[in-house]
Amino acid sequence: MTAEIISGTQISKTILAEIKDEVEKMKAKHGKVPGLATILVGKNPASVSYVTLKVKTALSVGFNEIQDDQPEDIPEADLLALIDKYNKDPDIHGILVQLPLPGHIDEKKVINAISPDKDVDAFHPVNVGRLMICCDKARFLPCTPAGIQELIVRSGIQTCGAEVVVVGRSNIVGKPIAMMMAQKSICANATVTVVHTRTKNLAEHCKRADILIVAAGVPGLVKPEWIKPGATVIDVGVNRVGVNETTGKAILKGDVDFDAARKIAGKITPVPGGVGPMTIAMLMKNTLKSAQYVLGDL
Ligand code: NAD
């Protein structure tokens, strides 16, 4: 068997085209477009490249995008004041503070300072609570888990009653995607197991999975023999394993041994080009939704 590739690159393009259409309709009806403020503190190279891509994507779908770069040594109080300014700005519907932040800034304080109604990353405790209670009716779903769910649904994979195994229990990927897949909803209704560093018999759990979602950050952790023949494999891991000497670009690998897994799985996401582009598309979707709520269209 050679697994079908689930292309996040292709699916995210479709989603971004849908968002662009909605933005044009909004502009025609209300004379307004969604506004996204992206705050970058310092010059961490990975953060700079993520923010650059987010800004470029926001502009490509027609958003009003404000890129607000701040120095590495910005005092915490000044950053909180900046967030407050955007919280009060009626033309800004989404606020994104790129993480991680420098050590002198309390990340939790920053996340809690963003209005839950503009928290397009869905990291605020109010949005985490909404996800637990009402999931598909929550205003914002966290971007990477939402992207994973979209990949599964748009690839026509049956989730109802499926065995889903999630490797990893982080707040941004493992825990929320596990909760989302277990919800009573047509895009979920799965039986979910979460495995982590203290799990005994990791391989045995993975072998049961109809849908295996891996977010561990360990290159090649999942071996081909851990995959049930025909299963769907979603590889969230992005691991820099070296540098391409010709291009100077990082060589990225997922948490799954892709070439070997492709011979056993039914469907599989590549790295790069799988979950990564979906995360950005879902950030745009959250910002659009936020503006639609404010304008009374949702
Ligand atoms: P994290 O380090 O916060 O969490 C990793 C989790 O994996 C932990 O809960 C840990 O218990 C588990 N884990 C680690 N090693 C394990 C092992 N050997 N066996 C079993 N469980 C193990 O990481 P994260 O933020 O959830 O990210 C995970 C990976 O996904 C990273 O590679 C990250 O770069 C990537 N990621 C990608 C995107 C994207 O948009 N593509 C977004 C977020 C994270």
Mean pLDDT: 96
- Principal-axes shape call: globular
Radius of gyration over C-alpha positions, nearest whole angstrom: 19 Å
Q: Helix-strand pattern, N to C?
A: EHEHEHEHHHEHEHEEEEHEH
**From the helix content, strand content and strand pairing, which structural class follows?**
alpha/beta
Order of strands, widest sheet? 1-11-8-7-5-6
Could you give the count of β-strands?
11
Query: What is the CA-CA span between the terminal residues?
Result: 44 Å
Q: What fraction of the residues are assigned to beta strands by DSSP?
A: 15-25%
Helix content range = 40-55%
Low-confidence stretches: none
The profile of the biggest β sheet is: 6 strands, parallel
Which descriptors apply to this entry?
298 residues, alpha/beta, six-stranded parallel β-sheet, three-stranded parallel β-sheet, 10 helices, 40% helix, 16% strand, binds nicotinamide-adenine-dinucleotide
Produce a short descriptive summary.
The protein is an alpha/beta fold and 298 residues long.
Structure characterization notes:
- The chain has 298 residues and is α/β, with parallel strands linked by helices.
- Helix content is 40%, strand content 16%.
- It is built from ten helices and eleven strands.
- The strands form three sheets. A six-stranded parallel beta sheet has the order 1-11-8-7-5-6. Strands 3-2-4 form a three-stranded parallel beta sheet, sandwiched between helices.
- Helix 1 runs parallel beside helix 10, helix 2 packs across helix 10 and helix 6 packs across helix 7.
- It is globular and about 55 Å long.
- Bound molecules: nicotinamide-adenine-dinucleotide.
